[in-house]
Amino acid sequence: MKTKSEIKFTCQDHTVTKEYFDLVLDANLEMLITYPKPKEEDLYKYYESEAYISHTDSSKSNLDKIYQFVKNYTIIKKVKLINSFKTEEKLILDIGCGTGDFLKSCKINGWNVVGVEPNEKAKNSALKKVNTINSNISLVFEKIENLLEKENFKKFDVITMWHVLEHVPHLEEYILYLETLLKPNGRLIIAVPNYKSYDAKYYGKFWAAFDVPRHLWHFSQKSIEELFSKKKMIIEKIIPMIFDAYYVSLLSEKYKSGRSNPIKAFFVGFLSNLKATRSNEYSSLIYILKKSF
Questions:
Q1: Residue 230: how many CB atoms within 10 A of its CB?
Q2: Which CA distances in Å does 191 have to 96, 129, 266, 285?
Q3: DSSP states of 204-238 as a string?
Q4: What pLDDT digit, counting tens, does each position of 78-106 carry?
Q5: Where along the chain do its domains lie?
Q6: Most CB atoms within 10 A, among 17, 27, 148, 186?
Q7: Is the torsion defined by CA of 233, 239, 243, 248 positive or negative?
Q8: Would you tell me how many other CB atoms lie within 10 Å of the CB of residue 213?
Q9: Chain centroid, CA 241 distance in Å
Q10: CA-CA distance, 194 to 201, in Å (whole number)?
């Protein structure tokens, strides 16, 4: 049982089960932890919903359409980012590749692509997309351990985790896997929500990016720096994800008031980005990490 001083928020699973979970502060890391953490074998049930859009290509609702528009725009920016790195084999691993749109764009740009996606439906969709392009490597595995079990597994020039690290059950073990799979001069790119942003503080327990219990960990800039420095990886650059403040605010308004309220959500997202120009505490952040020796 956690003490009242340790619990910072009690949040509801708005997407699937409507259950409640506590967010407990690890003061040393400045990280919030979802408590109780569901058993690993039970985690799948919290993703079994058409509302969990990263596992589908749905464009049914207006919110779906906004998500797909922003996703397509940000994929262009993401590919431009990885194309800026000088690499040997152009070998990229995208963990949590979803339905494969980012991998497909990477492959079109000449990358050898490998994905990890535990959701069977999303994984099959990703394979279909990348296999329509008849060049370079294209493989999608169910879990990262499948890669590590391969004899003489290849190391990657770039590993990406777009809003995935917050989902992994065994955090420090997973970071060790990432370090093992990355080439000495490779880049690890991690995008995660930032609970120290203005929109997170404004919405509190209704902040959609808490997304309990699918999000098991809730990071600050300090927690990312501390966790990865233990595995000799340093932050090379931090890039804001401007659109996240607007999309997360739209969802948060719905959770808080029962309706989307787009005008108010847009204002909160705008204010969050404006305040972040001074604080650097954007709604979500992309961390580019590199091995240190």
A1: 12
A2: 12, 23, 22, 6
A3: GGG-GGG-TTT--EE--HHHHHHHHHTTTEEEEEE
A4: 999 999 998 888 999 999 999 999 999 99
A5: 7-291
A6: 186
A7: positive
A8: 22
A9: 11
A10: 10
DSSP conformational letter for 38: P
**Contact call for residues 100 and 140 (beta carbons, < 8 A):** yes
Q: Are strands 112-116 and 233-240 parallel, antiparallel or unpaired?
A: unpaired
Q: Is 36 left (phi over 0), alpha (psi -120 to 50) or beta?
A: beta
For the whole model, what pTM was predicted?
Answer: 0.91
- Cross-strand partners of 33: 24, 217
Minimal CA–CA distance to 260: which of 59, 61, 21, 57?
Answer: 61
Which tens digit of pLDDT belongs to each residue from 244-287? 999 999 999 999 999 889 999 999 999 999 999 999 999 999 99
d(CA 94, CA 74): 15
The Cα–Cα gap between 105 and 101 comes to 6
Question: For the domain bounded by 7-291, which CATH number is listed?
Answer: 3.40.50.150
Cα–Cα distance for residue pair 102/130, rounded to 1 Å: 10
Helix, strand, coil content of the chain in percent (nearest 5): 45, 25, 35
Buried b (16+ CB within 10 A) or exposed e, 172-202: eebbebbbebbbeebbbbbbbbbbbbbbbee
**Are 283 and 163 a contacting pair, CB within 8 Å?**
no
Does residue 213 have a cis peptide bond before it, meaning omega lies within 30 degrees of 0?
yes
**Helix 101-108 × helix 120-130 angle, to 10°:** 20
